[in-house]
Amino acid sequence: MQKDLGRAVELYTKAIDEGKSTHAMRCLANLLCKGGEGVEKDDEGALQLYNQAVGGGNVEAMFELGNVLAEGRDGIEKDLARASELYSRAIDEGGHEGARTNLAVLLEEGLDGVQNDLNRAAEL
How far is residue 11's CA from residue 26's CA, in Å, rounded to a whole number? Predict the structure, then answer.
């Protein structure tokens, strides 16, 4: 089966409109954040969708938005403090292992608004 990202955007949008699916919000945010293959990059739209999915309790969206903010991207400002908050929430609400690893790294490095905490990093 051939990949059709334009059709994926349509289906995710429909799922969001019909049922406020946080999974669809997260998936569509991923596509908008990356762009390409017929999907126009839209950082603002991606952030809005990630935040809606996070507000709906989607643990994977917490992790992925944390990654986006930890890295910073073309139109998205790096925000390590917010990324650490999202990783903490993903751990607390869903035991997310990737978030655990990424938060430990941020706590070990202690950069840009994230206080260095080697003890907590080791506990994670």
Answer: 13
Give 47-92 pLDDT, tens digit per residue: 999 999 999 999 999 999 999 999 998 788 999 999 999 999 999 9
DSSP state of 63: H
Contact between 27 and 57 under an 8 Å Cβ cutoff? The reply is no
Q: What's the whole-model pTM score?
A: 0.88
First-to-last alpha carbon distance for the chain, in angstroms, is: 40
Instruction: Tell me the CATH number for domain 5-123.
Output: 1.25.40.10
- Cα gap 101→112, rounded to integer Å: 18
